[in-house]
Amino acid sequence: MILQKWALIPLLLIGLVVTACEEIEEEKPWLQVERPEMLFTDTTLMDSYDKGVLAWKLKTAYLERWSDKEVVFVRPVLVDIYDSLGERTAFLRADSGRMDLKFTYVYAYGHVYALTPKGASVRSDSLIWNKKDNLVKTESYVRVVSEEGDVLQGRGFESDAHMDNWRILSNVTGIFQDAARRLKEEDKSQAKEIETRDSAQAANPAPPSTAPAKPQAAPAQPASSAAPAAKPAAPASSTSAPPKVDSAAIKEESKLIEKIKNRGERAKAKARDSE
Predict the structure, then answer these.
(1) Which of 67, 73, 80, 162 lies closest to 109, judged by CA?
(2) pTM above 0.85, yes or no
(3) CA distance readout (Å), 231 to 195, 220, 228, 234
């Protein structure tokens, strides 16, 4: 009996091995991994033109495009902005960005840094350029250091495509370098301009106008069959004759005064008689 049990052990081991092999040999489906349609992992340049003139040039080290999206993703974003003469006047840098294939917009995000032609620097979380209005905008918090060293902060930013004219939209606060000195210099400059203008006016006064006054035309009267209205009487002159005295009225007034006097005399006589 013991020998028979030991004889069954090899058979059991063979069955386990066969079962394990069958499980390993089962076919499993391949995992589908999405891959971009285009992928560039080397330096790539992309240009944008405005009416045949180079407007800006984008340089990146990584670019990908997906087949189901008409969007290109790049990182980092290195944009150089050019003027109408082909000179680089400003630039923009960011960690990442995306744009459509028709270049109707460019969206840069992540540690965005831009330098304007006048020397002001702009920092923000994101900036977007829209070809339709040709403006650079953001609704994020923005920090601008002007060419004079002033620090301006606020929410929202808008500029032209060349970053030449810009403004912060709301909640603006700032720190101005040497504000008192600059205000004094501005006041002196304005005072000097006013003094120069007044001196020029005093040296060359404007000649008086000698043009004769144009007579005013009488207003046209509407045609009417009715007789014209009578002219108002002219005011009496100081040399006109005095008004006529009404003698009859004076006589009546004198009679009334006499009657009043007589009544008074009679009243006094009655008072004496009663005493």
Answers:
(1) 73
(2) no
(3) 58, 17, 9, 9
